[in-house]
Amino acid sequence: MEYDFLSLVRNRQSDRQYINDKAVESDKLERILEAARLAPSACNGQPWRFVVMTDPVITKEVGIATAGLGMNKFAREAPVLILVVEEPTNASAVAGGVVKGKHFPLLDIGIAVSNITLAAQSEGLGSCIMGWFDEKKIKKITGIPRSRKLLLVIAIGYTNGKYREKVRKSKDKIISFNRY
Fold first, then answer.
1. Which residues have a Cβ under 8 Å from the Cβ of 117 and sit 6 or more positions away?
2. Which one, 22, 64, 128, 165, has least CB within 10 Å?
3. What angle do CA 154, 73, 128 make, to 5 degrees?
């Protein structure tokens, strides 16, 4: 399925139902990960690592650790989970962040994650970004060092859900030109 960019953005949604017995093809997953790898970052710091869960047994364990307190139950059945880990950035990005009072790695990772979800959509796959999970448990399952921060878990798979119309604020409430 091919999209022009705005169609891709319009159709991308948080999918919470996946066809369980339909695996994500490795070539599609490679293109999605390449889109993440190519994302821009402050001072080219690339402050990320993507831990890709494709083994059904480990993916299920991580999915269970992601589905806590009634949240993200669908993660237990997602065919692929991508763990987004913040890594140290370079000295230039750190210095710039101190001067400007910004933590650039979080911004950079947001861009990379956006690339992941849009690339998944372009491959005919659904995705959902999750910030609610048992970080300690996932780190133990996957060997992520205690010194690293697991920021997000992204589910990827063939969606079994229906597309929903986006509800967004009107342009006049979020966009202005030349003045606030």
1. 12, 127, 129, 154
2. 165
3. 25
Residue type, 84: V
CA torsion 22→25→29→32, rounded to 10°? -90
Q: Kindly calculate the radius of gyration of the chain based on its CA atoms and give it in whole angstroms.
A: 17
Residue partners of 121: CB distance under 8 A and separation at least 6: 3, 8, 11, 12, 127
Could you tell me the pTM of the whole model? 0.94
Query: What's the distance, CA 58 to chain centroid?
Result: 18
Largest CA distance in the chain: 53
Is residue 2 classed exposed, middle or buried when 0-12, 13-18 and 19+ CB atoms within 10 A define those classes? exposed
CA dist 127 and 106 (Å) reads 20
Query: 159 and 14 in contact (C-beta within 8 Å)?
Result: no
3-state secondary structure 29-91: HHHHHHHHHCCCCHHHCCCEEEEEECCHHHHHHHHHHHCCCCCCHHHHHCCEEEEEEECCCCH
Q: Quick one: tokens of 65?
A: 């650790």
Q: What is the pLDDT of residues 10-50, one digit of tens each?
A: 999 999 999 988 999 999 999 999 999 999 999 999 999 99
- The structure tokens listed for 17 are 């139902």
Residue with tokens 């999209």: 3
